[in-house]
TrEMBL record:
The chain crosses the membrane at residues 51-68, 89-106, 118-138, 150-170, 182-208, 220-238, 250-273, 285-304, 316-336. The lineage of its organism: Bacteria, Pseudomonadati, Pseudomonadota, Betaproteobacteria, Burkholderiales. One of its GO terms (cellular component) is plasma membrane. InterPro entries: SLAC1/Mae1/Ssu1/TehA, Sulfite_efflux_TDT, Voltage-dep_anion_channel_sf. The keyword Cell membrane applies. Its main location: membrane. Belongs to the tellurite-resistance/dicarboxylate transporter (TDT) family. It is found in: Cell membrane. One of its GO terms (molecular function) is sulfite transmembrane transporter activity. This is C4-dicarboxylate transporter/malic acid transporter. It is a multi-pass membrane protein.
Length: 349
């Protein structure tokens, strides 16, 4: 047990994010497939349920391990938090809670159960974003060559808050409603604000620095995450206003974001294939960074197709869901193999 706990990488929670969002995408796919008959929708819904419960199990095990590690090996945790690259992945713990809250919302889980998960995830994401950014802003360790889209995670992860938080705020009353609304808007605003700056920084790396290769290759796909989650959060917030015209205009903005995400997806796939052919894509826990971005993109595609009543886009969304399931399977198999051999427990160098 100790061989896992002490060197435990914070990126383990990206597996929970990926599993939960893939379940969410499959749930939406099952709804879309219902028109074709239960014969197609039933197995998709079954797969979504399997991943739903798997995400809960993973979060339970990893959450207990993370808390135990903080108590038993606090020095190792603080050392990782101060790392200019690895520290960013600590935000995946609370963000995974937010993704699970969004997935539970779509599945119709009681808000009474969703609320504690969402509040913990939202407050945790704020806390980690401040800690990580303070460390980066007061240290000279981060260099341009170290910058990757993974640096989006702590701050831009704040935009995930309204996906499940907006409907929770709308259903709340009194002071709790005001607090939830404030948390949603602050998270959304801060996340978008930081995305603009960090996007410029990562593009500077792409244009002026060395190519993103090796174990960091999957982070190329992280660009899809804010391009997908920002419009999803915007739509969730607009829906709470009850103004159909606002939602209609918002759907056009969301469609533009989806177009940007699909454009970047082609580039990310091309660079990933290039690294794979050159032998620069070894398996690592970072492979889970493939999963959440493409899963979020598929969820956005389903949402936009629903709002704009499009006929072709649902098929595109279905294809993206299959891609999410494929990369989830690849990451899961690699992780299982690494657990069996013990290679995945080796401390990062």
């Amino acid at each position: 047990m100790e061989r896992f706990i002490r060197p435990m990488a914070p990126g383990w929670f990206a597996s929970v994010m990926g599993t939960a969002v893939t379940s969410l995408a499959l749930t939406l796919a099952s709804h879309a497939a219902a028109d074709a008959g239960p014969a197609l929708a039933a197995p998709v819904a079954l797969a979504a349920s399997a991943l739903h419960w798997l995400a809960i199990a993973m979060m339970s095990v990893l959450g207990i391990a993370a808390v135990y590690r903080l108590i038993r090996h606090g020095d190792a945790v603080m050392e990782q938090l101060r790392h200019p690259v690895e520290g960013s992945f600590y935000a995946t713990f609370p963000i995974a809670m937010l993704v699970m809250a969004a997935e539970w919302t779509i599945r119709g889980v009681s808000p009474t159960l969703i609320a504690p998960l969402w509040w913990t995830g939202a407050l945790g994401t704020f806390a980690v974003s401040y800690v990580v950014l303070f460390g980066l802003f007061t240290s000279e360790r981060l260099k341009l060559g170290m910058v990757t889209p993974a640096h989006f995670i702590p701050a831009v992860g704040l935009v995930v808050i309204p996906v499940a938080g907006a409907p929770l705020a709308a259903a709340s009353e009194g002071v709790l409603r005001e607090l939830a609304f404030a948390l949603n808007m602050t998270g959304f605003g801060a996340g978008v604000f930081m995305y603009v700056g960090l996007l410029a920084l990562t593009m500077a790396r792409h244009f002026l620095g060395a190519p993103v290769e090796g174990k960091m290759t999957p982070t190329l796909w992280v660009h899809l995450a804010p391009l997908s989650v920002i419009p999803l959060s915007m739509l969730a917030l607009l829906k709470t206003t009850g103004d159909a015209s606002l939602l209609r205009y918002g759907s056009l903005v969301a469609a533009a974001f989806l177009g940007a995400a699909l454009w970047w997806l082609v580039l990310a796939v091309s660079m990933t294939i290039r690294n794979r052919r050159q032998g620069k894509l070894p398996f690592a826990l970072s492979w889970w960074a493939f999963v959440f971005p493409i899963g979020a993109c598929s969820v956005l595609a389903f949402r936009v197709s629903e709002l704009l009543a499009l006929e072709v886009l649902p098929h595109v969304a279905g294809g993206l869901t299959l891609l999410a399931l494929f990369v989830w399977s690849a990451a899961a198999l690699g992780t299982a193999r690494g657990i069996r051999t013990g290679a995945i427990f080796a401390p990062a160098h």
